[in-house]
Each structure stands twice: as C-alpha cells, then as structure tokens.
C-alpha cells in the first residue's frame, strides 16, 4: 500500500465520520472493480462458450448463444457486492494496493475538519489535516508512531476571521516521500493549544518561537519563555495589528 | 564517554559561553551549568541577531524579500535563494527553463563546497589547528572569484529570480569551474586528508565524541550532515528530488557512528559528491533561455504551499501563505541549524567542556540563520 494511503487511513482515526464515508466510498469503488472484473470474466467465458458452441454445433445455433451471453452477465454484479461486504469492518488492507489516493476536491471555505489529499506538485504536501486544537496531540502521536518527525511549526494570524492558525509540518526520513501538514484554528482572543513538545521534543523551540511571534499559548509547555525576542519582550511582532 | 562525578547542587557553577566567544562563530550564548570540567546542563540562548525576516517578508512584495534570503545563512546563500524561489514558483505556477536549473545546480553546489570548506577551516581552528584554515580559504577564494564573476557578489548572493537566474554563465566561468574541480581534487587527498583527517590529534578529539543517535535526530528534527552522520541516508536532493537532481548520478555519504568524526567525514565526502554534480551538470549543460517570462508583479492565488531544499547545513523549508496579494501573507522560514542546535542541550549533558566545543563545531552552526 502506498505510504500516503496508509498515513491517510491512520489519520482518519481522528475523524470517525469522514472515515466511515470514505470507507464506504472505497468499498463501493473496490466492489465496482471486482464486479467489472467478474463481468469481464463472465463475458469472456460466455465468448469462449460461444466459440465452443460455434465449433461444436455449427453455424445455425450460434444466434441463440449470442443472445444468451449478455443475459448472463448482469446477475453476478449483485453477488460480489454481498461477498465483499465484510470488508467494511476492516477497509484498510482491502483497498487498492497500488497507487496513491486521488487528490481531494477543494472544499468550500471554511473547510470541515478532516484529511485532504493534496496535489504535491502545487502544494508541496501530500496530506493536509485540519483538526480541532485538542486533537493536535493525538495527531502528533499517530504521526510520530508511524515514523514521521516534526519539521516546523508555523503560526498564522487570520485577523479578518478573528482566528489564529498553527501549522505543524511533518516529514519522514525513510522510505517513500510523504509530507503531512496538520493545522488547527484557534480563536484570536484566546489562542491556546496543547503542546506537542512531550511527543516531539524538537517542537519545544518551535513552539517558543511561535509564542514569541503570535502570543499563542502552548499549554503544558515546560519552558515557554522568549527564544528569539528579548527576554522581557511583551509584544508579538507577527500579529497583523502590531505597531512597533 | 566518562561519567560525570556527581556533586551536590551547590557545588555546581554557571559558565556563560558567549555571546562573544571565538568558538561560537557568531553571537550565540550557551548557559552552562558546570560540575568541574563536566557539563550538567546546557541551555543555548538565542536571538542576539534576530532581525525578524518573516515580518520583513510580509511588509514587501515577493521580489523585495529576495535580498533577505542570503542574509540568513550567508555561507550557503544560494540554497536559501533557491528555497525561497521554489516556494514562490510553486505558489505562482512558474516553470523554470532547463538551462536555468542547470546553472542553479552548478552554482548552488559550488556554494555548498565553499560552505563546507569554511566550516572545515573554522572547525579545525576551534580544535586548535591554525594552518588548515589558510588552505581552506585558499580554495574557497577560487569559488568566491567564480561566483563573483556570474553573480556580482562574493558572499550574500542574490542571483536567482522567480523563473530563472539573473545572469547567464559564460565560457570563462565554465573553464574556471573545470580548473577548480581539477585543483580541489588534487589537493583533497594530500592537504585535506593526509594533513588533517588522518592526524592523530584530530582523531583523538573527534572519535567517539558527541554521539548523536538517529532517535535523537528524529526527536529534534535534525537534518543535513548531522542526520547523515548518524547513519540515516536522507537528503532532500534524493528523497524529495527537485531541480535536475534526479538526472544526476551522485551518492549520499552517511556514516553510522554518530560521533563528531562521522559528521566530519560526511561533509568531507560531500565536497567530492558536489564536485561530481558540478562536473556532470557542466557536461550536460543545455542551451536556451535562463529566465522564463514572468509578470513583473506576481500575484499568486490565495493558498499555501511548502518547498524544501537541501542547504549545506540541512533542510531549509519555506511555508508560504498567500492571500492573492502582491506579497506573502505569511512566510515561515524553517532553518536547518535551529533544529540541529535544539538537540545540543540533550547531548551535552555529562560532556567535558572541551568536547562540547568540538560537538558545537561539528554541528556547523551559522547564527544569523538560527536567529533569522
């Protein structure tokens, strides 16, 4: 299975609703593949039978066989759907083993919580996760458990929407490339998010930097003091309404 | 490594290494809690030359930020040029002509060699050897002359443009580069390896000192030669190929020991690999334009993107967030040394002060790039 697909399903643990719909869609897609393959096999068998019949019984009766063949094809379509139905319980290993998942359609903004597959060429990331602030720690745990490391933390001040955003960029050093960005939105009036520094100690400095620039509080951070700004700094220069 | 002899807390003392110290190569302060000659706790204190580049990016247009990029890591300025260019090109959907990609590769690899040479000289200087610095600067001077010829500057190059490079290279540069490759190859075994690498004093100072495990690298997000010195074969040029690197044949040097010597050897081997890359690029150099047609004022669509390059010190990443305006809405600069230094506190515990200086040297820190 491709690493992007694997990571996507791991991350979907955070979003049960999306997972259920995606699993259904995947099962449906998978059933369609099976059904298509069966129909094709049936058609081939029918064609073979037709050819055999043709060889055995001569020209006169071949029209009957030809009429029969297309009739036989439709019924099996229902059968595989029932047979593969148990796959819904455990959809991940049943999925298309080759290939990356298709790029998600751009959702309307504001986008709902969930996992999106991005076009790497245009965005530089493969998976884009939007989660609630209290899911950040869980997402970091899932990703570090799957062999990812935290590359950077970015704060963004969306002043018009009265929100702040924190982006966590994850990358991996082994195996095929898969970049994941985990984002979360916080209210601008009280920007608070749990720290991930106990899971990825490297986040410690990045979070201190983000706290310097935006005043975002990382709850549970062991040492949230200015890192790049002077030690007595009480301003946050990257806020859009900052005046020196 | 020798275990520290534990004393009661009131017998420890605080030692400030820096902010002005010859071995920190810039204004970095490390607050050390010492127990005799052993470090109990090390806390790097940053921000002495913080200039808020990210705010400057928000205040101007995309092109206006270009001259800021070389002023972060002034020793491998072109990598930072390239990282920022790639982020903007990705956001605006600009294609770079093939010849420009080749020129970028040749110049950025020359810059990588010059960065490694300077690190080599300065690192040996930290360890007490003065002469190698002069050899390194002798060779580095040749690179600076070559790059000055095409870029117009000797240190803070601002040579790349969105969709290409500022200036085409000429025959003088090509022959000069070929001569330089020959010259460095002839000097590497004798002046660099015989004199320094095989030197017993150097080996005693570096071997089995400052061990960094792959797990520590992963925990702190360390990249570049630090990660490869811990045995992980990761290089953005191979793992996330950009520009023309997929078409070139080169290796990723990596050493599993994880000590200072391993990091030293990674960089020394990288010089040879960069020479190989330059040689192949010069052989394959295609004709054509060096600059794509790009509108004077760039207005990429709203959205965000990420671009990463392998700078001399590790992964340099740009997260660029656009809102459809003429400049970045937000530009995050992920500099390699910031993450590489963050593991220092953990590995320095229980280390001798003299060894800690060797470890800091082996991390190849450039302070303006940490402080941004």
Question: What would you say about this model in short?
Answer:
The complex is a heterodimer of chains A (244) and B (372). With 244 residues, chain A is α/β, with parallel strands linked by helices.
The proportion of residues forming helix of chain B, as a percent range, comes to 40-55%
Question: Got a strand count of chain B?
Answer: 8
Overall strand count of chain A:
7
Q: Give the largest interface pair and sizes.
A: A-B, 33 and 41 residues
The number of distinct structural domains of chain B comes to: 1
Taking strands numbered 1, 2, ... along the chain, how are they ordered across the largest sheet of chain A?
1-2-5-4-3
Secondary-structure-based class of chain B equals alpha+beta
CATH topology of the largest domain in chain A: Beta Polymerase, domain 2
SSE order of chain A:
HHHHHEHEHEEEEHE
Q: N- to C-terminal separation of chain A?
A: 52 Å
Low-confidence stretches of chain A: 69-95
Quick one: overall form of chain B? globular
CATH architecture of chain B: Orthogonal Bundle
